[in-house]
Amino acid sequence: MKNNHILKITISGLLIAVGIVIPMFSPLKIVLEPASFTLASHVAIFVAVFISPSVAISVCVGTTLGFFLGGFPIIIVLRAASHIIFAAAGSLFLHKFSKGRLTEKKFWGVSACIGLIHAAIEVAVVSAFYITLSVGEAYYEKGWLVSVLLLVGLGTVIHSMIDFKIAHIVVQPLKKNKGLRELFGKV
Q1: Quick one: which of 100, 101, 110, 157 could link to 115 by a disulfide (CB 3.0–4.6 Å)?
Q2: What is the pTM of this model?
Q3: What domains are there in the chain, each with its CATH number?
């Protein structure tokens, strides 16, 4: 049991590092002004979601602190902080309610639900900045409906679902490792 706890802490630290590095240095970015999406930027969080709610929350807190200490704009830091909610909800659902019984159809349903929660929270964060005139001019040129609801909202749902699938693909071989099998449980 103690080794499992140490393993979770170690993996949380590694996932935090990956979760900070990918958005900073990835060349795989899709820019739809004023929004941009970095492919795989949520994969570390979603891998944590497959491990446990506590690991998911730890990774989200760690990446948020990383962006804060890295001097990123407060809107990005708060968007990172908002990940705590969808990651905790998604992990809780996977571990408490689905008990690892995810068919392909249910997988995409869970992914869509997590994506909708993710998007709703990010839209709320960006809307607060939009209302207080604290976002870039490009947001106002396209208006709230296009720049916030469509690009941030719908874009986040799609981005979230893609990253969730990538994380699922990453987790499958890890679950086969004898030392990691227990960490992922039945998910």
Answers
A1: 157
A2: 0.93
A3: 2-184 (1.10.1760.20)
